[in-house]
């Protein structure tokens, strides 16, 4: 409605938020959140924040690192299967026993990837992802 209203302050806030998100990224490309399924979920939230600020796979190394993390940790069944122990250990931990992966984690990640469209980078995700029911 009022695009000029406090435009400088808003731009500064967005710049600071992007800097905080990028500086909070872990060395493996994920973000840590202090709750249950903390690496996949917080990575999804961080990626959505970066996207909202106009960042893309092509112009943001943090998004590139996060994509690599998601590709490397994705299971053969298409999900991620992160254990609640990730929060306690502060280390991305997968579920050891064979269980069905929460559909929400798959949906959040697909949602983000589809929004980003990477200019052709979606193919590796599609190749690894299968949503068939076991």
TrEMBL record:
One of the record's GO molecular function terms: beta-amyrin synthase activity
Domain Squalene cyclase C-terminal stretches: 5-86
GO CC terms, sorted: lipid droplet
SUPFAM superfamilies to which the protein is assigned, alphabetical: Terpenoid cyclases/Protein prenyltransferases (SSF48239)
The keyword Repeat is assigned to this record: yes
Keyword Cell wall biogenesis/degradation applies: no
InterPro entries according to UniProt: SQ_cyclase_C (IPR032696), Squalene_cyclase (IPR018333), Terpenoid_cyclase/PrenylTrfase (IPR008930)
BP-aspect Gene Ontology terms: triterpenoid biosynthetic process
Record's keyword terms, sorted: Isomerase, Repeat
Descriptive protein name: Beta-amyrin synthase, variant 2
Originating species: Pisum sativum
């Amino acid at each position: 409605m009022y695009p000029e209203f406090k435009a400088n302050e808003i731009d500064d806030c967005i710049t600071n938020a992007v800097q905080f998100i990028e500086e909070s990224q872990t060395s493996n490309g994920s973000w840590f959140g202090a709750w249950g399924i903390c690496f996949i979920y917080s990575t999804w939230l961080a990626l959505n924040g970066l996207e909202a600020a106009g960042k893309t796979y092509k112009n943001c190394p943090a998004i590139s690192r996060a994509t690599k993390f998601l590709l490397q940790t994705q299971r053969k069944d298409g999900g991620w299967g992160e254990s609640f122990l990730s929060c306690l250990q502060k280390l991305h931990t997968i579920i050891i026993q064979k269980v069905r992966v929460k559909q929400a984690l798959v949906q959040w990640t697909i949602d983000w990837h589809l929004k980003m469209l990477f200019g052709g980078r979606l193919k590796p995700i599609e190749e690894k992802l299968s949503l068939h029911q076991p």
